[in-house]
Amino acid sequence: MALPASIRSSVTPPELELIASEQLVDIIPLIAMDKTAFISGAYGPLRPPAKSRVPLWMATNLKLKKKCHIVPPDWLCVEFLQDRLMRETSQAEFCELPFRFAEVAKVLLDVASDDMQNPDKIRSLLKDLREARQAKSREGLQKLDHSELSLPNFCSLEINEIRPFFVRAMGVLTQVSRTTQE
């Protein structure tokens, strides 16, 4: 959802990708590596062809150096995304998705699309899913109530997009309700 720059004061999408890079993903290493300690924790040992679980930032680094294949998460496949898109367009509430699905999907599609089956279809489904969720968000803004705000199944990127608007809107609605009560 594109908001005017004057009210856009949230975390940027690249910053959200950086935060999401702490998510753990499976890799199939192409090199052997002993357990290595980093500030965020110790990862490894890596022993081909056994899968290893590492943070997304480490997986992308190894992938760019051609030292691993990244195993996409279960939810990053055509069947799952088609199911979620169908639910999103047929139900009133937001369907459940991983909290940082948009950020993780973008990073994996940018870096490891060759490790996925049908990456172009996945990109298209993610775009359609995002547009359907944005349409629901816009529709929900018309029903905004100053006394309660509930956003079940809202994802990180979506929350950050509408946060500045909601903060201002809730402030205005609170002021209006105070003046009508006086």
From TrEMBL:
It is found in: Nucleus. GO terms for cellular component: GINS complex. GO terms for biological process: chromosome segregation; DNA replication; double-strand break repair via break-induced replication. Keywords: Chromosome partition, DNA replication, Nucleus. Residues 12-71 form the DNA replication complex GINS protein PSF2 N-terminal domain. Its main location: nucleus. Residues 75-171 form the GINS subunit domain. Belongs to the GINS2/PSF2 family. Component of the GINS complex. This is DNA replication complex GINS protein PSF2.
